Every structure is written in structure tokens, then in C-alpha cells.
């Protein structure tokens, strides 16, 4: 109950995503032109994606539109593996899912256990991601556990980060059940040990990634974010982990005060007229900058840091607290929608910081990789719990429709397909 409320009571002010999804080619072209003019970063990003392919390629040159300033590292990866695994479509997969609410009841968090709460349809579990130019293999638990033998993996972020960890636990449970070896009683942060494979996986609850305090006892949901200070709850422990998956997002919609150098520098939706409204994109970028700085200040880290990019929500016909819901029952085709508005801004803010951290990491021998899920998840309005995250008789004035998290089994199982594929390339 408590956890659910904490997870969900973010003050999302996002306006409705345009429900008209038929985009005329001319509009798209104009849009792309504008985007590329103002956001060269977007143009840049596909070339740095870690990508995979079964095809070996010897003489592939970057496409003509490739900007000349693509860094050598990115180019090398691109030439070696000529496939962007993040560009593709969702295609039907009758064989899915690979676990059920019955085989993995112990790991699935109740509010994402959509079948338990009576979701009538099951098609949302029966899709897989098909990259345009190669295959993305379905998660192979034995292969994963062999790859990570003797290693450890940490998820840092909010409840969507935990959502992915639970998917991973479920996918791996075909081969081995882990032991809960958590040192803290905090239900929000758990550590699991796969003793047969000497693999540890943990999640660190840190929805803002940086140091936070509650701003005012009178307004308990108004947080103070110390945008340049580490959140010790994870930064003090992260050196124990080989691989780290960082993500954040939906909490940044809430009202907050922003501090830098211990001074109040601005805020988001606060009522104090004397304080500058800096907006969520500002704090979002800064929070990632600080989180990446914590990683880059580690000594002797041999693992990989993944940025799992923002996963859009899909409220339609109202905001999250104004009757918005997600009732679609199948994925979009990639030509039926496009990243825009808040989703696009958040995505670009985090990828911008990722780029900086990646080149800093390169100097220090640290690997940063994009787990570039934003566009992919934009296409999955059908994958959220909506009303099936709790019993129907639960008080509807306090239980909103959940179009933020993802049903398990469900589309975010694919994030672990990507994770395995990327680890497979690197290790
Ligand atoms: C999207 O592409 C499919 C083919 O993959 C095509 O049948 C459909 O008409 C396209 N839709 C739009 C809105 O362009
Ligand atoms: C799993 O879902 C089914 C409905 O598909 C439900 O009857 C069953 O109680 C659920 N089991 C658990 C353990 O949640
Ligand atoms: C498990 O992995 C850790 C870290 O690599 C290593 O120090 C330890 O010796 C391993 N334990 C066993 C039993 O293999
Ligand atoms: C705003 O700033 C002015 C000048 O610094 C000050 O006189 C005033 O009391 C401040 N108001 C609030 C609400 O803090
Ligand atoms: C539902 O919750 C609201 C707000 O907490 C409360 O005022 C109302 O009495 C509750 N209704 C029921 C049926 O429990």
C-alpha cells in the first residue's frame, strides 16, 4: 500500500499525448528538420549505439547523413556491428511469455501482476522486438548466468528500475532461484544472490539519483534536490558492483526545490515567487551529470554502466490524476507515433549527459552504454497495468490508473533481451 502510494503520487503535469497518430509525411519531414536543426544530438546518437548483428561486415561506411564529428570509438562499434538493435518493430511472438504470474509469483510486485488482478487480455505479452537489420535473440537464462558468473549487477533508480529487475529475476528463475541476501530491512532496495552461478543482483532505490531531503514538513511531497551531491545510499556501495543500470524519470515531474553548492538555485512548480522556475529538464540533466560523476570517480571499475533511457507513460484522455488511462491493446508501428514533447526533452537531457560521461569514462577506462529503450517503449501503450494493478474494489479516489509501470510478464522483459545481447558483445 505504502510503496504503491510513494511510487505513484508524482505530480505529473504532462499534457495529453496527441491521440491522433496518423502522421503525414510532410509533417514528419518538417519535424525532423526542426529536430535536427535544434538538436544535433539526436542526429548524433544512433551512431554511438551499441549494436549487434550476426552479419559480419568489413567495409561498411557510416551513412551519408553521418555527422563528421562522430567520435572514433562510436564509429568503430558501428562498423564492427552494423545493426542498430534499437531500430525496429514489435512483431507477434506466439511463444511468449517465458514465465507466468504463477511460475514467478514470488518476484512479481503485486501492482505489476496484471493477470492476478484480472486483466482479461493476454496479447500484450505476445510480442518481441525485431531490429530492422538483424535479430534480437530472446533472453536465454543459462547463457545470461554463464556470462555473469562471478559478477554483480545493480539497478539504480525508481520503481521502473525495480520493475526491470523483477523481470530479470523471473526470466532467470527457469534456471535458478536466488537467495535474498539483503542487509537492510528496506523493502525498496533488495539484494539477491545466485549461489550456483556466483552472481549478485541488487536494486538501489534512488528515484532522483542525487541527495534528497523533504523540503518542508508542511508540504511532504515537495522535495529538495541537491543536484550536485551524491545520494550516498547507492554511491557508497556501487563500487562493489561490476555492472550498473541507471535510470530515472517520473519523479522529476513533481514539484521540487533545487539546490546547488548548498544554495537554493531554483525550483519546479513551487509557489515561492522569489525562486526561479528552472523546470524539470534542468534538474533531470543535472541529476544524471552527478550520478555519472559518482561512477566516473570510481577507482578500478571494470564493468559497464548502462543508461536505461526514459520509458514514456501512456496516459490518454486526461492526466494521471484526472482520469487518464491506457486502454490500447496493441503496439504502435514505428510509423504511427513519434517521440515528442516532454518525452523527447527528457530523453535528450539524459543522453546529452550520457555523452559527456561516456567520453570522460573513456579516458578512465570505464565503459558507458545506452540501453536505448525510449522509442521502443513509446510503441507499447498496451503494456501498462492500468486498472489491473490492484483489486477492482480498491478505493478509486486514491488508486489511479497505472500507465507508468509495466505488467509482468510484459514488454519490459525485452529490456533484458537487450541487456543480454549487449553484455554478450562486451564480455
Ligand atoms: C506504417 O507502415 C505500414 C507497413 O509497415 C503500412 O502498412 C502503414 O500504412 C503505415 N502507416 C502509416 C500511418 O504510415
Ligand atoms: C495468475 O493469474 C490467473 C489469471 O490468469 C489467476 O487466476 C491466478 O490467481 C494468478 N496467480 C497468482 C499466483 O497470482
Ligand atoms: C564469486 O565471485 C567473486 C567475485 O568475482 C569472487 O571473489 C569469489 O571468489 C567467487 N566465489 C566463488 C565461490 O567462486
Ligand atoms: C522576496 O525578495 C524580496 C527582496 O529580496 C524580499 O523583500 C521579500 O520578503 C521576498 N519574499 C518572499 C516571499 O520571500
Ligand atoms: C476513499 O478515500 C477517500 C480519501 O482517502 C476517503 O475520503 C473515502 O471515504 C474513501 N472511500 C471508501 C469507500 O473507502
Automatic annotation (TrEMBL):
Designated name of the protein: Uncharacterized protein
Keywords: Membrane, Signal-anchor, Transmembrane, Transmembrane helix
Location relative to the cell: Membrane
All copies of domain Trichome birefringence-like N-terminal, residue ranges: 81-135
Domain Trichome birefringence-like C-terminal, chain residue ranges per copy: 136-422
Entry similarity comment: Belongs to the PC-esterase family. TBL subfamily.
Chief localization: membrane
UniProt topology in membrane: Single-pass membrane protein
InterPro entries recorded: TBL, TBL_C, TBL_N
Transmembrane segments: 21-41
GO molecular function ontology, one term from the record: O-acetyltransferase activity
GO cellular component terms given for this protein: Golgi apparatus; membrane
Keyword GTP-binding attached: no
Region span, Disordered: 54-74
Superkingdom per UniProt: Eukaryota
Amino acid at each position: 500500500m505504502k510503496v504503491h502510494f510513494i511510487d505513484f503520487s508524482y505530480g505529473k503535469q504532462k499534457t495529453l499525448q496527441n491521440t491522433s497518430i496518423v502522421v503525414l509525411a510532410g509533417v514528419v519531414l518538417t519535424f525532423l528538420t526542426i529536430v535536427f536543426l535544434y538538436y544535433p544530438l539526436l542526429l548524433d546518437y544512433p551512431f554511438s549505439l551499441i549494436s549487434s548483428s550476426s552479419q559480419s561486415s568489413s567495409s561498411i561506411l557510416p551513412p551519408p547523413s553521418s555527422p563528421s564529428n562522430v567520435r572514433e570509438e562510436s564509429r568503430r562499434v558501428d562498423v564492427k556491428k552494423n545493426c542498430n538493435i534499437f531500430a525496429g518493430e514489435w512483431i507477434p511472438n506466439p511463444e511468449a511469455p517465458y514465465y507466468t504470474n504463477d511460475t514467478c509469483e514470488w518476484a512479481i510486485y503485486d501492482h505489476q501482476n496484471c493477470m492476478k488482478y484480472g486483466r482479461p487480455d493476454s496479447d500484450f505479452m505476445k510480442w518481441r522486438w525485431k531490429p530492422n537489420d538483424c535479430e534480437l535473440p530472446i533472453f536465454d537464462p543459462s547463457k545470461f548466468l554463464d556470462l555473469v558468473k562471478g559478477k554483480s549487477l545493480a539497478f539504480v533508480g525508481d520503481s521502473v528500475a525495480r520493475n526491470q529487475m523483477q523481470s530479470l529475476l523471473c526470466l532467470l528463475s527457469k534456471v535458478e532461484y536466488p537467495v535474498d541476501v539483503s542487509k537492510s530491512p528496506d523493502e525498496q532496495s533488495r539484494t539477491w544472490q545466485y549461489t550456483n552461478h556466483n552472481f549478485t543482483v541488487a536494486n538501489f532505490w534512488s528515484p532522483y539519483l542525487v541527495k534528497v531531503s523533504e523540503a518542508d514538513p508542511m508540504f511532504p511531497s515537495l522535495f529538495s534536490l541537491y543536484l550536485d551531491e551524491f545520494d550516498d545510499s547507492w554511491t557508497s556501495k556501487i563500487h562493489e558492483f561490476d555492472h550498473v543500470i541507471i535510470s530515472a524519470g517520473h519523479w522529476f515531474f513533481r514539484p521540487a526545490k533545487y539546490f546547488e553548492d548548498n544554495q537554493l538555485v531554483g525550483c519546479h512548480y513551487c509557489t515561492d515567487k522569489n525562486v526561479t522556475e528552472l523546470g524539470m529538464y534542468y534538474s533531470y540533466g543535472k541529476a544524471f551529470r552527478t550520478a555519472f560523476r559518482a561512477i566516473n570517480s570510481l577507482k578500478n571499475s571494470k564493468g559497464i554502466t548502462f543508461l536505461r533511457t526514459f520509458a514514456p507513460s501512456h496516459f490518454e484522455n486526461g492526466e494521471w490524476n484526472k482520469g487518464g488511462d491506457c486502454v490500447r491493446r496493441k503496439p504502435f508501428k514505428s510509423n504511427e507515433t513519434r517521440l515528442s514533447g516532454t518525452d523527447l526533452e527528457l530523453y535528450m537531457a539524459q543522453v546529452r549527459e550520457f555523452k559527456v560521461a561516456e567520453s570522460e569514462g573513456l579516458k578512465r577506462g570505464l565503459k558507458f552504454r545506452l540501453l536505448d529503450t525510449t522509442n521502443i517503449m513509446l510503441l507499447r501503450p498496451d503494456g501498462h497495468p492500468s486498472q489491473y494493478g490492484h483489486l477492482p474494489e480498491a478505493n478509486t479516489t486514491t488508486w489511479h490508473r497505472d500507465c507508468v509501470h509495466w505488467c509482468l510478464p510484459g514488454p519490459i522483459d525485452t529490456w533484458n533481451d537487450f541487456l543480454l545481447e549487449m553484455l554478450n558483445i562486451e564480455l
